[in-house]
Write a structure and sequence with these properties.
- This protein has helices at residues 17-25, 45-55, 69-79, 98-108, 140-149, 154-157, 166-171, 184-193, 223-244, 247-258, 294-316, 321-333, 339-346, 350-362, 383-401, 406-427, and strands at 4-10, 32-39, 59-64, 84-87, 93-94, 113-122, 125-129, 162-165, 199-210, 277-279, 367-370, 373-376.
- By secondary structure, it is α/β, with parallel strands linked by helices.
- Helix 2 (45-55) links the parallel strand 2 and strand 3.
- Helix 11 runs antiparallel to helix 15 (383-401) and helix 12 (321-333) crosses helix 13 (339-346).
- It starts with a strand and ends in a 9-residue tail after the last helix.
């Protein structure tokens, strides 16, 4: 049985579906099934989906008459065999480590729901979107308090930035209402959250959401009908808070809750002049095969991949990649005499090292004494960062060892141990392991 079922409803998506499916099948997390449901497409979508099923045993394709996205997703939920469920829309895609990070968060924090950040894509521009700054497990009531501050935010309403437990969906018969065509995913989330006790925000973008002109306003929906539908959604929203909040708190905050009715669903703007906006291509670098010896290329590729994993560790702790690299250097050196020494070890300019030290100090990850300059990084506040850095190393190791037998892994580890000892000896590195 797969650990994760990824569900993608598809309708007339021949121009975009390959990007979506490839992003799922190329996930670092491999223990998944992909359920592609063709909702009566009239273009080449069915043919494309079937070709994926023929090429990869993890792919299941279901063809059905057109009935809409909600009933299509419900069919995917019914068919899913995974412990966790993940949803995508056909014109979007996910980061290479999206499923791995969502599952890791759910398992490490024993969460009923994981909610990740995402990239909003408009044309060639994108910006990172999130809502909850808390890097800790939230109760249902705490999550509701955050949602109440920005109820129309896509972060809370959509399905595609979240990881659900199949057991909860089945136990409480939580499904999408096929009769509702406005905020049906938001209503689904409200019902699901009522059965959650532990909700974990993931402070890492996992999804690329492509902005399209498919809103109700863009479809020129009759204003009276739109208002009626929003009123219906508000009733779900109001009932949710009646269940979550005690009566006194509900009375005190009912005006804030009612304000949902006059707000439009929003994910803010992504324009070239808005701070934080980037070009899509800035997030990935095209790497072509490098000519040359094995050792230089293994070094280059491993350094690039490890850098990506360290950047994730940084984002999870509100740090830049440079901040994490400086943290690693200070932790390794233990006692340093100058910023110049850290600069030599990291390859970063001294001003950048100084800036990162200030950030790490402010966040309580390190403690510095300046006579001489020394650092103690094993502060209590650094535990989460250290954990995420260790995960980065484990992720790189998993890539190295993927597809190897246990005997091959044992042999490689032994060889790497010998290589490490020779490098330490050549560089005159004192082995602290013998003096602990």
């Amino acid at each position: 049985m797969p650990k994760v079922s990824v569900i993608v409803p598809v309708y007339n998506a021949e121009k975009v579906i390959e990007r979506c499916v490839n992003s799922i099948l190329n996930q670092e997390f491999r223990d998944l099934e992909l359920i592609l449901i063709d909702d009566g497409s009239k273009d080449r979508t069915a043919e494309i989906l079937d070709s994926y099923a023929a090429a990869d045993e993890r792919v299941r394709v279901i063809h059905k008459p057109n009935s809409g996205v909600s009933s299509t997703r419900n069919l995917g939920i019914d068919e899913a065999k995974g412990t966790f469920l993940q949803f995508l829309d056909a014109d979007d895609w996910i980061t290479e480590d999206a499923t791995k990070m969502l599952v890791r968060t759910a398992e490490e924090k024993d969460a009923d729901l994981v909610v990740g950040e995402f990239y909003r894509v408009v044309g060639d521009n994108l910006s990172r979107k999130g809502s909850i700054p808390a890097d800790r497990v939230l109760t249902r009531k705490e999550y509701a308090e955050y949602m109440k501050q920005s109820p129309a935010d896509y972060y809370y309403g959509v399905l595609w930035n979240k990881l659900y437990r199949k057991s909860i969906l089945d136990q409480y018969a939580v499904r999408l209402d096929a009769k509702v065509s406005f905020c049906e995913d938001f209503i689904f989330n409200l019902e699901y959250i009522l059965h959650c006790s532990r909700i974990a925000p993931l402070l890492l973008p996992v999804y690329y959401y492509v902005k399209t002109d498919g809103s109700l306003v863009a479809q020129n929906m009759n204003l009276e009908k739109l208002l009626a539908m929003k009123t219906s959604v508000y009733q779900y929203y109001d009932d949710f808070f009646r269940n979550v909040l005690d009566e006194e708190t509900y009375r005190r905050e009912r005006v804030d809750i009612a304000s949902f009715l006059i707000r439009a669903a929003s994910d803010e703007f992504t324009l070239p002049m808005v701070p934080g906006t980037k070009k899509v291509e800035e997030l990935s670098v095209e790497v072509k095969p490098l000519k040359g010896e094995i050792i230089p290329n293994v070094y280059r590729y491993s350094k690039m991949l490890y850098g990506q994993y360290l950047e994730n560790a940084g984002m999870l702790n509100d740090l830049s990649r440079s901040d994490v690299i400086v943290f690693l250097a200070v932790d390794a050196l233990k006692k340093t005499r100058s910023i110049h020494e850290i600069s030599l070890l990291t390859g970063l300019p001294e001003p950048a090292v100084l800036t990162s030290l200030q950030v790490l100090l402010r966040k309580g990850f390190i403690r510095l004494d300046w006579n001489p300059l020394s650092a103690s990084v094993r502060t209590e506040g650094a535990a989460g960062l250290i954990h995420d850095i260790e995960n980065a190393g484990n992720d790189l190791r998993d890539v190295w060892l993927e597809g190897m037998s246990e005997e091959e892994r044992r042999v490689l580890n032994n060889m790497l141990e010998k290589v490490l000892k020779r490098l330490e000896k050549r560089l005159g590195v004192e082995d602290d392991r013998n003096h602990s």
